[in-house]
């Protein structure tokens, strides 16, 4: 008994007991003391942050001056700068180049046409790796044409194609600046932290106010969303170029600029390309989300059909997103892994077989397209639609399994979701702040404790305590379920190489899908509400739990396992006594990622009607209330940051204990 | 050997840690304990070295003894905390960045332990890289690169990328690159340490062959004493950042300056180091079995002397300076001396 009762256990048990009691009886306490402030944060203590932010933005837009021009002119200039190439790409891919408007419009040149675009895709696939990839990418684009998603897909593609170079090059330059100037790096790091945790909807609002409703605002939001990982990867990969390579450059007599552009950047290119792959996937994700603020494209189709409850159309558009994500991901990954090959000898045609072929096809298509319109625009009559099939399938599922689904839903709701919800919602705000501070202090030291308490206090002071608790509850339950499913899957993948390939491949694909896609099947099967939100979050956040578990187990040094085997461990003992303990730091990193993804997905699930901070952000978006959006967004970010720091501190502690 | 000094470092210090500069100003001659208390690492401590034109100067020491740091101070890749470094009579530490770049572009070459090749360039482009950054026209620099690539025996692999080569071949590229600008001063930081023993041996032979053609001034770093005595004209032994002794290999073995050097040289095969001159004694009889040069190592003459009936003459610069006896050679061969 005495041995069992360590100070750590006393602390955690005590904390939980106090919290549970306060949560259960908060209402009685409030009645007994007649102190309503216990359960509700008093309105008159609320920070007027929302209003000040909103009026600051108003001032910025209405009357701020940047030297010679107003801020509005400044944003207009940026908008124009983005608009021009975007419009060019749209003309190139969709509308063709015209002069004049309306009836008097004269076409100067047609758009590329689907045949040319598919050939381009195939060429890129082959250039990046081999015929297999070319076939995959080509098939993906062909799918978009045959299944009638071409127009929307090209709108989405145009946005991605504009956002990616800006995000990648901008990220590269910011990263280089941070690498060169330590003070800039110190300035940038917290901004990057915040950028990656503030939910996307939150900065959609100010961007909307600054840039107006439309594709340009969506582009700005996309770039802002996709750039931070590129900055980080740039800094990281520049730092990981071996010191000796840089010294070799200096000994060769390179100037500072030559060191950067002839030595560091080329040596880091493989890792930089991983960053570009991320920028592409994040851009796609965001372009889909940003459909809501007028970018159009596939995301808009999904949203519109979800609103119409047109199940077939929703799934069709969703599949098109999936197909596009896979094509973009595989092609850009192949580029990242592509190694230098010696150029073939010969004349221009022989040295650049693909560029010449593609150019020829485009020209031929241009000419032939005049006479055979089917080459230019994929003929409607040949379009296949799977919409009715999906509608029927869904109907069949619903007719036959409605009761089963409903039963599952009720059991999980009653047995898990509601009790946890009640527990979290009941915690009085003041104790919540203290408890978070205590937990963080115990795990990560007093600095973390104070920071966590202050961040929670900010949430309470913004009047968002209740919604924050719902966010934490939904996130907590989802992460729990994702971990319970994910870690065994990861263990399985690590122990059985064949199963592992399938599982990890599936997880890779799951992770490339834009978050929006996850909503579609969930809403169709379970309609809106906390349960649907939870399922979507679990699906979205599952991948890191599986991956980190698998990698953690695989990374356990061979010697340790051999030592275990020679000590006579059974398979089970080997797993529980040797591998899992050694893999804990990795498991915790996976947990961290799972939490981060869960929080970012939660905001999206606001679309299926949760009542958490995500909803608050979403409401702000629909009302274009920048202050409300930013405050709620910051609250989400603070929750994410506190969770991140706590889990990292846990992982760090574990690593130290294991001497890794 | 021409005894003109090309590179000299005087009382060079390199301390890592917070406020190293101010610390050294306040405590000009710190002890090791002082450094530890101030939280500093003395990577190089009070190093004095003179390097003569045309010699192979080997810096030797265990891992972490400060060899790399010292050689990087000599090339100013690392800024020394204190001291002076004179290259061709001028203090390298007073040079501006621009001047330093010029010196490196024309007078210095360096070979690295992990090869440090640029992964995105071919063998030929890697060798041409130092010329590329100087703006030498493409045709010219590729022609020169071709020369050095052939010099190191990589003809036929010009179009390969580094990752397609073995370790030994990669280091050949590293050597080619460092020779492309025809440097006067050639730094090699443990160039063969990352290679397998057999390849290492082969590369040492290759290195000796190159030096016999090129006659560079060489600063060669190694942690392998056998390698050091094979290649060195003179050796500097380092320990914990300080130079223990600078001497010819033979002197190091015969007259170690410190216990550390003695310990280090104890297990060396002395026959490889000791020369006939060191064993020469006054002539004692009139019958001799032959003549050996004074600079010959015992290893190279041992069999002959030991098998012969009479002592051998030891000859230096055409003069007989003494005799070498069978028993003296046997003493060395069995390790009595
Ligand atoms: N950048 C650095 N920062 C701090 N300590 C360093 C740094 N570089 C080298 N050292 C320390 O200086 C000492 C000498 O290192 P080094 O010159 O690399 O030794 P060697 O090349 O002989 O193995 C080591 O104790 C090493 O830890
Ligand atoms: Mg070293």
Helix and strand topology:
The complex is a heterodimer of chains A (660) and B (337).
Chain A: H1 7-33, H2 49-63, E1 65-66, E2 69-70, H3 71-95, E3 97-99, E4 106-109, H4 114-128, H5 131-146, H6 150-180, H7 182-197, H8 200-211, H9 215-239, H10 243-251, H11 256-289, H12 298-308, H13 311-337, H14 348-351, H15 353-371, H16 373-376, H17 387-426, H18 429-444, H19 446-461, H20 465-495, H21 497-512, H22 515-526, H23 530-554, H24 558-566, H25 571-605, H26 613-623, H27 626-658
Helix pairs in contact in A: 1-17, 1-18, 2-27, 3-6, 3-9, 4-5, 4-15, 5-13, 6-7, 6-9, 6-11, 7-27, 8-9, 8-26, 8-27, 9-11, 10-11, 11-13, 12-13, 13-17, 13-22, 17-20, 18-19, 18-27, 19-27, 20-21, 20-23, 20-25, 21-23, 22-23, 23-25, 24-25, 25-26, 25-27, 26-27
Chain B: E1 5-16, H1 20-26, H2 32-37, E2 41-52, E3 56-61, H3 67-74, E4 82-87, E5 90-91, H4 97-107, E6 108-111, H5 123-133, H6 138-151, H7 167-179, E7 185-189, H8 197-214, E8 217-222, H9 225-231, E9 234-239, E10 242-247, H10 249-254, H11 259-265, H12 276-279, E11 290-293, H13 298-307, E12 312-316, E13 319-324, H14 326-334
Parallel strand pairs in B: 3-8, 3-9, 6-7, 7-8, 11-12
Antiparallel strand pairs in B: 1-2, 1-4, 4-5, 9-10, 12-13
Helix pairs in contact in B: 5-6, 5-7, 6-7, 13-14
């Amino acid at each position: 008994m005495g041995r069992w009762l360590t100070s750590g256990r006393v602390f955690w048990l005590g904390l939980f007991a106090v919290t549970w009691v306060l949560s259960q009886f908060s209402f009685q306490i409030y009645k007994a003391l007649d102190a309503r402030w216990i359960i509700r944060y008093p309105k008159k203590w609320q920070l007027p942050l929302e209003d000040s932010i909103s009026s600051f933005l108003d001032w910025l837009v209405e009357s701020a001056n940047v030297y010679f021009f107003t801020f509005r002119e400044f944003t207009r200039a940026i908008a124009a700068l983005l608009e021009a190439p975007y419009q060019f790409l749209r003309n190139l891919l969709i509308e063709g180049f015209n002069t004049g408007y309306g009836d008097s419009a004269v076409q100067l040149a047609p758009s590329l046409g689907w045949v040319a675009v598919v050939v381009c895709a195939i060429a890129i696939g082959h250039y990046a790796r081999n015929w297999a990839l070319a076939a995959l990418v080509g098939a993906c684009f062909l799918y978009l044409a045959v299944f009638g998603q071409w127009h929307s897909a090209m709108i989405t593609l145009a946005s991605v194609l504009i956002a990616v170079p800006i995000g990648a090059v901008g990220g590269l330059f910011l990263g280089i600046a941070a690498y060169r100037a330590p003070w800039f790096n110190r300035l940038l790091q917290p901004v990057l932290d915040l950028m990656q945790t503030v939910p996307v909807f939150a900065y959609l609002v100010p961007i909307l106010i600054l840039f107006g409703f439309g594709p340009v605002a969506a582009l700005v939001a996309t770039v802002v969303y996709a750039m931070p990982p590129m900055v980080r990867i740039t800094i990281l990969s520049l730092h990981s170029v071996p010191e000796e390579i840089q010294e070799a450059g200096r000994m060769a007599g390179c100037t500072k600029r030559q060191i950067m552009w002839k030595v560091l950047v080329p040596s880091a290119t493989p890792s930089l390309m991983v960053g570009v792959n991320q920028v592409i996937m994040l851009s796609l994700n965001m372009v889909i989300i940003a459909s809501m603020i007028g970018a159009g494209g596939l995301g808009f189709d999904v949203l519109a059909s979800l609103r119409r409850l047109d199940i077939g159309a929703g799934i069709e558009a969703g599949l098109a997103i999936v197909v596009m994500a896979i094509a973009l991901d595989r092609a850009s990954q192949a580029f990242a892994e592509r190694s230098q090959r010696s150029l073939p000898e010969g004349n221009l045609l022989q040295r650049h077989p693909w560029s010449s072929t593609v150019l020829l096809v485009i020209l031929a298509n241009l000419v032939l397209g005049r006479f055979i319109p089917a080459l230019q625009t994929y003929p409607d009559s040949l379009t296949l639609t799977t919409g009715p099939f999906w509608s029927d399938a869904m109907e069949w599922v619903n007719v036959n399994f409605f009761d089963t689904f409903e039963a599952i839903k009720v059991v999980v709701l009653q047995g898990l979701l509601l009790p946890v919800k009640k527990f979290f919602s009941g915690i009085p705000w003041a104790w919540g702040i203290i408890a978070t501070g205590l937990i963080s202090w115990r795990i990560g030291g007093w600095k973390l404790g104070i920071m966590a308490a202050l961040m929670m206090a900010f949430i309470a002071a913004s009047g968002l305590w209740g919604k924050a608790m719902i966010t934490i509850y939904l996130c907590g339950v989802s992460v729990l379920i994702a971990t319970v499913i994910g870690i065994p899957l990861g263990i399985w993948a690590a122990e059985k190489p064949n199963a592992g390939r399938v599982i990890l491949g599936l997880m890779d694909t799951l992770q490339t899908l834009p978050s929006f896609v996850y909503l579609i099947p969930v809403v169709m099967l379970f309609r809106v509400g906390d349960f649907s939100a939870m399922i979507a979050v679990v699906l979205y956040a599952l991948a890191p739990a599986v991956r980190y578990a698998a990698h953690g187990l695989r990374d356990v040094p061979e010697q340790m396992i051999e030592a275990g085997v020679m000590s006579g461990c059974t398979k089970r003992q080997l797993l529980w006594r040797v591998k899992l303990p050694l893999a804990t730091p990795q498991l915790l990193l996976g947990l961290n990622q799972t939490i981060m993804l869960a929080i970012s997905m939660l905001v999206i699930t606001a679309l299926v009607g949760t009542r958490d901070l995500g909803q608050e952000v979403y409401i702000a978006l629909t009302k274009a209330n920048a202050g409300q959006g930013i405050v709620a967004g910051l609250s989400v970010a603070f929750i994410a940051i506190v969770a991140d720091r706590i889990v990292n501190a846990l992982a760090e502690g574990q690593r130290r204990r294991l001497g890794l | 050997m021409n005894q003109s000094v090309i590179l000299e470092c005087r009382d060079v210090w390199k301390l890592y840690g917070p406020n190293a500069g101010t610390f050294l100003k306040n405590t000009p001659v710190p002890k090791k304990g002082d450094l530890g208390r101030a939280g500093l690492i003395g990577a190089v401590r009070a190093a004095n070295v003179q390097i003569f034109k045309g010699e192979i100067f080997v810096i030797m020491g265990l891992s972490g003894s400060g060899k790399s740091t010292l050689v990087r101070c000599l090339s100013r890749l690392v800024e020394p905390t204190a001291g002076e470094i004179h290259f061709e009579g001028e203090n390298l530490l007073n040079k501006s960045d621009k001047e330093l770049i010029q010196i490196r572009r024309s007078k210095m070459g360096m070979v690295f332990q992990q090869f440090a090749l640029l992964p995105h360039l071919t063998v030929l482009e890697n060798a041409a890289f130092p010329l590329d950054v100087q703006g030498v026209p493409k045709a010219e620099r590729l022609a020169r690169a071709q020369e050095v690539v052939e010099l190191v025996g990589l003809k036929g692999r010009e179009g390969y990328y580094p990752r397609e080569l073995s370790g030994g071949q990669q280091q050949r590229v590293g050597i080619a690159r460092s020779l492309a600008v025809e440097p006067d001063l050639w730094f090699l930081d443990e160039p063969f340490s990352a290679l397998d023993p057999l390849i290492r041996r082969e590369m040492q032979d290759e290195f000796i062959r190159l030096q016999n053609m090129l006659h560079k001034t060489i600063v060669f770093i190694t942690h392998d004493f056998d390698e050091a005595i094979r290649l060195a004209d003179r050796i500097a032994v380092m320990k914990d950042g300080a130079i223990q002794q600078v001497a010819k290999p033979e002197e190091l073995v015969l007259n170690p300056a410190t216990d550390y050097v003695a310990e280090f040289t104890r297990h060396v095969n002395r026959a490889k180091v000791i020369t006939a001159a060191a064993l020469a004694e006054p002539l004692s009889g009139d019958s001799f079995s032959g003549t050996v040069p004074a600079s010959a190592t015992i290893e190279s003459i041992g069999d002959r002397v030991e098998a012969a009936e009479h002592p051998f003459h030891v000859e230096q610069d055409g003069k007989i300076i003494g005799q070498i006896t069978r028993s003296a050679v046997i003493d060395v061969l069995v390790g009595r001396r």
